[in-house]
Amino acid sequence: MSSIYNQTIKLFGSHPEPAFESAGQQAAMWGREWGCDNDVGQIRLCLMHRPGDEMEIVDRNKRIEEIGSYGDLEAGWYFQSDTVPDWDEFRAQHDGLVRTLRREGVEVVFLDRIEADGIKSMYTRDSSVAIKGGAIVMRLARTIRRGEEAHVTRTLANLGMPILRTLHGTAMAEGGSFAWLNEKTAAIGRSICVNEEGSRQIEEVLNAQGVELLRVDMTGYSIHLDGALTMIDVDVAIVDPDRLPYPFLQKLEALGIRTVEVSEQDNHWIINCLAVRPGRVIMPRGISNRTADTLAAMDIEIIEIDYDKAQLNGGGIHCSTCPLVRDSVY
């Protein structure tokens, strides 16, 4: 009996190749090729959350004069702008972003549920990151956002998307501080919201796929890399050089990435934009003529939308979108 068993196991036994994230394995075992290996390929599937009744927790009577915004230390919520918008206008701008994405051929799906006070849940970029073959679920740094991890995990599982890692222990990281530079190079912005343990756990998964993770130390209280850099084409990034360390700017040049620097005349939120496919980008209104001319000369197409009310909650277009599937471009 043992001889038959051993011979059977030997004949039908272990096969590590092809890799989990290979196209054939993904299609056969998980129904489709999941994830992303870039930040500019055509988005096929994008995770979002339409802001709902949770926004009503923001009490206009709870203004903290010394910081010029709103919050409740005891309840644990904050709204980091000096103005609280009309919520109908706020939601209408988010709806406009969803419509724009759908016109660009993107399938938009939504979180299954959120916390009752999850006023930051609309920024789905932060709770997970899509890499080749699946997702990494983050561990969010700020207590106002803890709990989002469980909801995104359930949503991804219901979609059938593999979860390759859930950050644990003392790790902290948020997806707004993660960027693909090319299919073999990614960057993580270390900040008040991203510690080294979070970076290390993400790096472990990426290294298994042959991807290098660059650490970028953010300045001051900057929380996310996507406030200083976003890829908008295969070899083009829009950047704020004053918020990035010089060695990283040198690395971008060494990788052959051309940079478009925002000017003082630009709405700074244009950095927090989204490439829906190579060289076609959704941006908020407020691009200066100089920057518009530079982008046009580089054959970058811009779709401008109104998003100023939604930005009052502390995040922009990039923050509000989490691509789960993109076409490869390399």
Explain what the structure shows:
With 330 residues, this protein is of the alpha/beta class. It has one domain (20-55, 86-326): 5-stranded Propeller (L-arginine/glycine Amidinotransferase, Chain A). It is 25% helix and 24% strand. It contains eight helices and 18 strands. The chain has helices at residues 2-12, 23-30, 87-103, 148-159, 196-208, 246-254, 289-297, 308-311; strands at 43-48, 63-64, 69-72, 77-79, 107-110, 128-131, 134-137, 163-166, 178-182, 185-190, 212-217, 229-233, 236-239, 258-261, 274-277, 280-284, 301-305, 322-326. The protein has a three-stranded mixed β-sheet, with helices on one face. A three-stranded antiparallel β-sheet has the order 2-3-4, with no helix packed on it. A three-stranded mixed β-sheet has the order 6-7-8, sandwiched between helices. The N and C termini lie far apart (51 Å). The mean pLDDT is 96.
